[in-house]
Design brief:
This protein is about 20% helix and about 40% strand. It is an alpha+beta fold. It folds into 2 domains: about 10-30 and about 40-190, Porin (Beta Barrel), CATH 2.40.160; about 240-340, OmpA-like domain (60s Ribosomal Protein L30, Chain: A, 2-Layer Sandwich), CATH 3.30.1330. The radius of gyration is 32 Å and the shape is rod-shaped.
């Protein structure tokens, strides 16, 4: 009978090990297929919470008197891709109080993977919902006589994370270890490193213009008087919220004044230039600047401005007017500007 139990335990351990290895291989595969401009980052954190511990008395003279306890954990991880991270942790889950006397302490060391099922932004900022699973080793601290059936077992869990732009994040999660331990925690974490500060692209230099010599005429011909064109006044800059192409109430009021000025000068043509900050990938920001340009043009055409008078140009994050290292600078870079075209 003892031999059969050992065979079953060995088979379980093989399945657990195989599962953990597959998770790591899947993470590496995801990392290999990630976007080339994704920045891998280390992170670490510390948390505290409430545990529910249920050691099995298994017919002994003791019983569980109090299963609720408090504990803490520390963890360190690495973002392999935009959605997959690998993470190791050490958790002290507290103690279950036994009757008539005694305590059973729980400590757990584990390694696993996190997969983000939902992310508010491509980079690690805003809200994220994740699931996690991995392989853990449980240790018990008690004066009572006990026997652990499995020292190693699978753990799994889920959580919600909110990450700020400076790399600091808050995380709430629940984890289940084997059959007799659950842990609900709130953690503070920090991601280190990040993409290097992007330098604005230099403006292209104009091509030299070769001026042909003026033709010689026998008699001077009087030139026609130049057409009087009314000057176009200053057109205001339109600003947007983070990761949005929606027009705010303030933006609509500004565009009403832009439309009035363009109606006052019906011969004027303008270039509508879309810009973003650098908080996402270059390709994502280029698409977002196109969407902002289109939103402005659609609004002006609804106000009666002919479409052929508006030329859209998208620059993405390549032409900042302020530093993207501060929130005020990023706010000034999320914009649409107007530039009058020569007649």
């Amino acid at each position: 009978m003892e031999k059969n139990n050992m065979d079953i335990r060995n088979q379980v351990m093989k399945n657990i090990t195989r599962t953990a290895v597959m998770m790591v291989l899947c993470g590496v595969a995801v990392s290999a297929n990630a976007a080339s401009d994704f920045t891998n980052r280390w992170y670490g954190g510390i948390g505290a919470g409430i545990s529910d511990l249920e050691p099995d008395p298994n017919g002994t003279a003791v019983s569980v008197d109090e299963s609720r306890s408090s504990g803490g954990k520390i963890f360190i991880g690495y973002d392999l891709s935009e959605r997959f991270s690998i993470e190791g942790h050490y958790a002290d889950l507290g103690e279950a109080k036994m009757a008539p006397q005694g305590e059973v302490g729980y400590k757990e060391l584990g390694l696993g993977g996190l997969y983000y099922l939902y992310k508010q932004h491509p980079a690690h900022s805003g809200f994220g919902l994740f699931g996690k699973a991995g392989l853990g080793k449980m240790e018990n601290d008690t004066d009572l006589t006990y026997e652990r059936v499995n020292d190693y077992s699978l753990f799994y869990g889920a959580g919600l994370e909110y990450a700020f732009n400076n790399g600091v994040a808050l995380r709430g999660e629940i984890e289940l270890y084997d059959k007799d331990a659950q842990f609900l925690t709130i953690s503070l974490m920090k991601r280190f490193g990040g993409a290097a500060e992007k330098q604005p692209e230099s403006a292209p230099q104009p091509e030299p213009v070769v001026v042909a010599p003026a033709p010689v005429v026998a008699e001077p011909v009087p030139e026609p008087a130049p057409k009087q064109v009314a000057p176009l006044g200053k057109l205001e800059v339109i600003y947007f919220h983070t990761d949005s192409a929606a027009l705010t109430r303030e933006a609509r009021a500004k565009l009403d004044r832009v439309a009035s000025e363009l109606q006052r000068v019906p011969d004027a043509r303008v270039e509508v230039e879309g810009h973003t900050d650098d908080r996402a990938t270059r390709s994502y920001n280029m698409t977002l600047s196109q969407q902002r340009t289109r939103a402005v043009i659609d609004y002006l055409t609804e106000k009666g401005i002919a479409l052929e008078r508006l030329r859209p140009v998208a620059y993405g994050e390549t032409r900042p007017v302020a530093s993207n290292a501060t929130e005020d600078g990023r706010r000034l870079n999320r914009r649409v500007e107007f530039r009058e075209l020569k007649q």
